[in-house]
Amino acid sequence: YKHGIAEVLEWINEVFCCLDEITTKAGDKLFKVDTLHNFYMAVSGCPVDRPDHALQCVRWTIEMAKHATRIKRPDGNATLLKVGISSGPLSSGVVGVRSPRWSIFGDTVN
After folding, report:
1. What is the value of pTM for the model shown?
2. For residue 8, is pLDDT > 60?
C-alpha cells in the first residue's frame, strides 16, 4: 500500500459508519446484511417483503454514493462507490453456532 494499513482501515471504517447511518435513516426500507473486506451489502424487501424494493435500493444507493464522496480517501481524493443492484428470489436464515449470523442466499445474491 502507498498508505499505511492504519490509514486505510480508518478510511474504510469511516465509509462503513457513513453507510450504517444511512441504512439506519432508511428504517425498514433498507436492511444491512453484512460487510466483508471492502464490501457493504444491504437489501430491501427482506426480511419483510416490500413491493417497492427495487425503488428503495436505488433511492438509498444514490444517498450513499452522494455522502461517500464527502469522505476523503487516504490519497486525498473523494470516495467513489462501486454499486451492484440485483432483484429476484432469495432465502434467508441464521447460520452458524459459534458465531451465528443472519444471512441471505440464492442466485440473486451470488
Report:
1. 0.86
2. yes
Q: What is the pLDDT of residue 1?
A: 55
What digits encode the pLDDT tens for the residues 42-64?
999 987 889 999 999 999 999 99
What is residue 28's DSSP assignment?
G
C-alpha cell at 110: 451470488
Cβ pair 108, 90 in contact under 8 A: yes
Residue where the block lists cell 428504517: 27
Q: For 18, what's the count of Cα atoms within 13 Å in the CB-facing half-sphere?
A: 19
d(CA 44, CA 27): 10
Cα–Cα distance measured from residue 103 to residue 34, given in angstroms and rounded to the nearest whole number: 8
Alpha-carbon gap, residue 48 to 50, rounded angstroms: 6
Q: Is 102 exposed, middle or buried (0-12, 13-18, 19+ CB in 10 A)?
A: middle
Cβ proximity of 75 and 2 under 8 Å: yes
